[in-house]
Amino acid sequence: MEAQQKTHRGLDSGGRGEAPRAADRGAESMTANPETESPSAYDRLMEEICERENLKQALKRVKANKGAPGVDGMTVHALPGFLREHWLSIRATLLNGTYKPQPVRRVEIPKPDGGGVRKLGIPCALDRFIQQAVLQVLQRQWDPTFSDSSYGFRPGRSAHQAVAQAQSYIQSGHRWVVDLDLEKFFDRVSHDILMSRVAKRVCDRRVLKLIRSFLRAGVMENGLVGATDEGAPQGGPLSPLLSNLMLDDFDRELARRGLRFVRYADDSNVYVRSERAGQRVMEGLKAFLSGKLKLKVNEAKSAVARPHTRKFLGFTFSDRVQVKRRIAPKALARFKDRIRELTQRTRGVSVDRLIGTLKRYMTGWRGYFGFCETPSVLRKLDEWVRRRLRCFLWKQWKLSRTRFRELIARGVSRDLAAQTVGSPHSVWRLSCSPALNIALSNRYFRSLGLPSVGPVG
């Protein structure tokens, strides 16, 4: 799921690196306008990062997020014991500004749309812990200053809210979208431009030095460490916040121009009333991004188009008077590809184990894509999944006598069972035959624990 992968990118994809919700924080008075605050309000920021309660919360979050080990091989389960033994010396390096993060470990994962791979940089567990502690303090201060039209990687905000906001713009008559995709955004962020934005909000030089050291820690790939002169590696807790800071200038420019927009990480949609207006906005924004932020728009993935022809966070929209949220065709195709993979006969798994695997996948998928407003599509997916399972079991039964015996045992008449076993039709056609619908009914699959992605009832 794209949006999930960004959604889906980022990251990930879920609560990695989140700070407490805005309503829970008590430092709002320090954050209303970072550019007008006295430096004295921030020159002990590192001490705030190293406070016991902040560190306890950071450790809890890192353990909950799990994640693979970094270059040192330390797991998050081993981290608490390591901190008990070494925290005093680590804290001293943070407070005196000499902490040195380790290089990140390069991991490549396939993009959900099949368009190549996404490069992640996995920090070691200790660096993830420190990044999380920094994030929690900075996000409390920075998040209230970000645009209301920015939804990605922010406490109390979600992809569903972004999709609903886009839908409301289309419903109000803005039926052209300027769909902007930034080319390799996380790989090409300028460190100097990013750090200049950080320096406007942070006066503690130790924190500035620490953030830059995370950006320049290097990447280990195939046993060799390479320098990182640009980019903010996806995979660490701090990168999403830094990406939102980097694109805050972009959000402000969109607002200054009076445009209706929705941004989720590096995925931005601007809604306008005509194609001509969209083309004008597209050219202006490309010039702004390249000139001011040194970022490049991916021409192949960006366009001015009708919203129903584009996808946004895994969804698209109906082209009708009443705009409805629909699941994007690519997201539906990925769902079917995954189910086909899980129900391959060659997997050699029991039906109970298969249902358990399907349950985990389908429950998560429904939790995200159930936000669509097309229940008939979800019902058809349920029917399709059950047909795949009937095919799976029919192939597992394999021999004619086994198939006949199983059908009889499950309430099928002898004549119908014999007719079905001797049928020349394909397995897929037989999967909706009367005999298999009786023997492997919807109720039977529910009794095994198979969930539904569609409306219940």
Task: Walk me through what this model shows.
The chain is an alpha+beta fold. Helix content is 49%, strand content 10%. The chain has 20 helices and ten strands. The strands form three sheets. The protein has a four-stranded mixed β-sheet, with no helix packed on it. A four-stranded antiparallel β-sheet has the order 6-7-3-8, sandwiched between helices. Strands 9-10 form a two-stranded antiparallel ribbon. A hairpin with a 2-residue loop joins strand 4 (219-221) and strand 5 (224-226). The protein starts with a helix and ends in a 9-residue tail after the last helix. The model is unreliable at 1-41 (pLDDT under 50).
Give a quick set of tags describing it.
single chain; 457 residues; alpha+beta; four-stranded antiparallel sheet; 20 helices; 10% strand; globular; disordered N terminus
Chain-averaged pLDDT:
87
- Count of helical regions: 20
What is the structural class? Answer: alpha+beta
Order of secondary-structure elements: HHHHEEHHEHHHEEHHEEHEEEHHHHHHHH
Summarize the structure.
Helix content is 49%, strand content 10%. By secondary structure, it is α+β, with helices and mostly antiparallel strands.
Draw up the topology in text.
Layout: H1 2-5, H2 45-49, H3 52-65, H4 79-95, E1 104-110, E2 117-122, H5 125-142, H6 159-171, E3 176-181, H7 185-188, H8 191-201, H9 205-215, E4 219-221, E5 224-226, H10 238-246, H11 248-256, E6 260-264, E7 267-272, H12 275-292, E8 303-305, E9 315-317, E10 325-327, H13 329-342, H14 351-369, H15 375-397, H16 400-409, H17 414-421, H18 427-430, H19 434-439, H20 442-448
Parallel strand pairs: 1-4
Antiparallel strand pairs: 1-2, 3-7, 3-8, 4-5, 6-7, 9-10
Helix pairs in contact: 3-5, 8-9, 16-17
